[in-house]
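User: I'm new to structure prediction. If I give you an amino acid sequence, what do you actually give back? Let's try with this one:
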Amino acid sequence: MTGRRTAILSDLALVGPELIPAERPCILVEDGKVLDILTRGAFEEIRDSVDVIDLGSRTLLPGLFECHNHLALDARLPGHLGMMGLSEAEHTVLALNGLRDDLMSGVTTARCMGDRYYLDVTMKRLIKEGKVEGPDLLVSGIGMKAAHGHGFVGLPHSGAEEFRKTARENMFRGVDHLKIFMTPGAPAKSETDFIPCYLTREEVATVVHEGRSVGIPATAHCIGGQGLDLCIEEGVYVIDHLYSVTEKQVRRLETEFDGWVDMTSGIVLDPDREPYLSEASVAGLRAAREYSRACMNRIYSSGKIRFTIGTDANHGLLWKELLFAEQGGASRKTALKAVTVSAAEMCGVGNSKGRIAPGYQADLIAVSGNPLEDLSALSQVPFVMKRGTAVKTPA
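Assistant: Good question. You get back a string of structure tokens that encode the predicted 3D arrangement of the chain. For your 395 residues, that looks like this:
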């Protein structure tokens, strides 16, 4: 049974897989999906039979994907890295606040990269049931770290069989991807710095194999070093961060790797994060910042490496990450696709999300100005529609 249709009008919309500007379109929505893209003339013929949302001079574009999120972390809060020791109830409060802020900023889909208590799995279900307001979630359940390694949100494991057991428990719980922590989180200060790798080849291969057996990809926290080489060689599908990737490793990613890289540049490059970190952490980031910038810019400017973009729990501030991508050598369109069209493809939902096209989920946002001319237009999002329902409208 179909409901009443909604016609959304704007001066401009970025449509299709290439985000092509369409002037004065009418996006016709029915049952949570885009039914058609009409001209204004065609709209006038059906005006009396539809509900109308007129966004005026604004630009309409697909809802955004936040491709590296954590529900129980909030990088806008002091001491957030130590919050993993909080109770499940406190984590839930953090998640509810972050989810709403993400949605109101234009994020309609979020890729969750590990939380305690299977918080992400629970929130995914509650959002689907309409009991919690937030983006659609793609979840990883319990992140898997080594007992002696990094991973604030992960739980410790030793040996391939422990990794196998958690991978299977995660998949039993219904996760969308399997998360492992390969390296430290702090970036290297130069190419000569040693970067530890905390997982063995067998442990990595075990997680990748377990996921592949049921069609679930593996994703890895990895800044570089020998851990990155293992990820490439053992078939990890998404490699997150890469603050310390070398030129040689960029060549490997270009020629040997058929997966994706997810970039989270603001962790290192954004000085606005510094007030929320310890003095030691700030000193380390400042010492590594310019080397990390050069490393990450190798990814952005490659043109051969598929990448998406996330914030690593800097809720509501995804737009800043797109500016880092542009400054690093990516075109505005490539950066924008990294949180829409390309992000949907990486997340395995490219046939139903991530673009404005007939048959696609009606996840839509509107901004003043054209993001293809100025990405900072995404800093203010007055209109958000998720699954055909407007959850935020202009005053």
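You can read the tokens as a compact description of the fold. Here is one thing that stands out. Residues 6-62+354-392 form a domain with the Urease, subunit C; domain 1 fold (CATH 2.30.40.10).
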